[in-house]
Specification:
elongated, about 625 residues, 27 helices, about 55% helix
Length: about 625
Amino acid sequence: MVFLKTHIELIASIFSGILIVLAFTLETQQYFTYSVFTYLLAFGIGGYAKAKYGILKTLEDRQLNVEILMILAAVGSSIIGYWTEGAILIFIFSLSGALETYTMNKSRKEITSLMELQPEAAWLLKEGQTVRVPIEELATGDLIVVKPGERIPVDGALHIGQSAVDESAISGEALPVSKYEKDELYAGTVNLSGAITMVMTKPSSETMFQKIIDLVQSAQSEKSPSQQFIERFESRYVKVVLATFVLMLFMPHYLLGWDWNTTFYRAMVLLVVASPCALVASIMPATLAAISNGAKSGIIFKGGMHLENLSVVRAIAFDKTGTLTRGQPEVTDFVIRKGADPQLAMAKIAGIESQSNHPLAKAIHDFIVSKGIVPLQNLAIEDVPGNGLKATIGREKFLVGKPKFVDESLAEAFENGLLTKLANQGKTVTFVRDNHGILAAMALKDTVRDITKSTIEELQKSGIYCIMLTGDNRKTAAVIAKETGVNDYIAECLPADKVNELKKLLEKYKYVAMTGDGINDAPALATATTGIAMGAGTDIALETADVILMKNDLSRIAYSIRLSRKMQRIVKQNIFFSVSIIILLIISNFFQAITLPIGVIGHEGSTILVILNGLRMLNRHV
């Protein structure tokens, strides 16, 4: 039932096409009564959705539209005995409309996945007891307890305790952020370690997450300039054709001396040859072929409008984490104190890190194991939230964590200032301290994808300005920007900041694309002319984006732009050809140089030609 309801318009269109074939067969067998009845069924089934839409839209906007024109053309051709031609006009128009509806329905998804990340209840601390209450019942100033692994329910400030918080949903930062007393906390982010008590500072309706939702909905509700232009053109086109049709019903009789039969006949021919089937087919087949081409290449386009917009994009903004980079911390440097046994030191470190679920600890553990070293087992470990780990191996005590935790002066002095050097490269450094001082330093970094630099270069050669928008700190952003070769970068961007930067780019370049993968990128994806999401991104990023790169292959962006530009060339060829044919047929009809069958052949022939030209988009060599 769900499938039938979702695809009813497409099913009706296909069924009407089958009825047309049946009616034509009955007509050739001289069963005229049955054929007319079958044609009427084809008219009703195929044209119902478009007729209903056209009439309601006309009443709502108080303007005639192409749907009304097509219905009149089909009815007019039937009145003068050309049932097949009228039915085919309805079928072609209804099929294109059904396919367009089907495509658009796939791109209109609710942002329920984002809503699900907002906790519905929280642990309210009241009179020394914790009580589970709905978010709506909380008020600013309330104390809320957040347990390890739970999502922070509202925006607020840390009141008691310390922890590491995964803020990737808000900032896009791949690495957890340490939180201490009075530090800001955001709804929807995850408390990774240590129970904390926070004080609520904003109503639930004003949280950062709610702002993200509002920004997405606001951006999606705005009509694109192309859509507005098409609507204006459609209205004017229909008015001109219908005005000309009305004049043709009586003016030639008085001005040119035509008899009434000829006048009415020529007016009906005008409706047929002026109907915009070829004009409509100029765009849809080429668009669908381009969408199919993209799908085979790992690119999902959510509609023809986005292909059109992509062809004129002059600037692209990139998120960093998970887009230009892999989105996972990797060990880039592993330095052990001189004189220490490397194998034993790494075995101890791997054993300690194996006891933590922190992303950095996991990356270090996996790196050591990949070297064939077996971690020490059954170690006594103590997790120090927001700082690192304490461990005891025999009589030896170990500290593993950030410089301040192990003794910042020792960390800075290790290996002649190695910390400063690695930090300037945009790397996060974890230290290991034993009874004798700093044992080891491990540098981690979210590394740039292999294809990133070549993709940026190709886009820049196409005349496209590339900029990176990231929630990372300026030092890290500068390093990544240099490695990727982007024209510019802006660091420490929250979701609203990315939207503001996109608006500035839109003012300067008019057509701007945004590429991202996280929840924090969703508002910017919706604000951009074209939003491009990585296939491994979050649900809300995939739902908000106009284009999805299924294989996380950035090189597909350049391919998408070439594909869209080729499609635009074909569409322009088709529009020029179809409009030229319509004008030629209208002029020929006025001079009585064509009959209705010839007009239909010219009209349908031009439709077939533009469809075939559009299908050239299926060619993978762009």
